[in-house]
Design a protein that fits this description.
This protein is mainly beta and 143 residues long. The protein has a single domain, classed as Calycin beta-barrel core domain (Lipocalin). It is 0% helix and 76% strand. Strands 1-2-3-4-5-6-7-8-9-10 form a 10-stranded antiparallel beta barrel. Strand 1 and strand 2 form a beta hairpin. The two termini are 17 Å apart.
């Protein structure tokens, strides 16, 4: 690929916290580019919390990196997903940096079909914060 390709994006996040379910969906356009050992997908999410720059690094080995940063740089999160593994999460807010751990329970990264699915549990100090499901679909924009 090695060139930037416009894509249509649909990202749905389902969150279960304290027996309550929340869902957030984004439909937007973005860009994808192949770089060495990965495909990099960038797009913007604008919602009631502000404007966020979203970056997915889809590694050819199957792992997924996710970075979400607010336009004012007050909020930022960095996730590294590898199936059946726990990884530290950097989560910065205007109140400071929080130490979290994400345990990936399911991971599908199908670049050829424009599909990423990630299920994970998020912990803070060994306490379950919530159960998360990310569903990302992307397709090339023609024309």
């Amino acid at each position: 690929m090695n060139e930037t390709q416009k894509v249509d994006i649909k990202l749905t996040t389902t969150i279960k916290q304290d027996n309550e379910d929340f869902e957030h969906s984004i439909e937007n356009s973005g860009i994808i580019e192949e770089k060495d050992d990965r495909f990099v997908l960038n797009f913007i999410d604008e919602n009631e919390e502000g404007r966020f720059f979203i970056r997915f690094d889809l590694l050819k080995t199957g792992e997924v990196l996710l970075n979400r940063q607010s336009s004012d740089q007050q909020n930022m999160s960095d996730f590294y997903f590898k199936e059946k593994e726990q990884k530290e999460v950097i989560y910065k807010t205007s109140y400071g940096v929080m130490s979290l751990v994400a345990q990936t329970t399911y991971l599908l990264s199908d670049i050829d079909n424009g599909q990423v699915e990630i299920d994970y549990l998020l912990f803070q100090q060994k306490q379950l914060v919530g159960e998360y499901k990310l569903r990302l679909i992307f397709s090339a924009v023609i024309g």
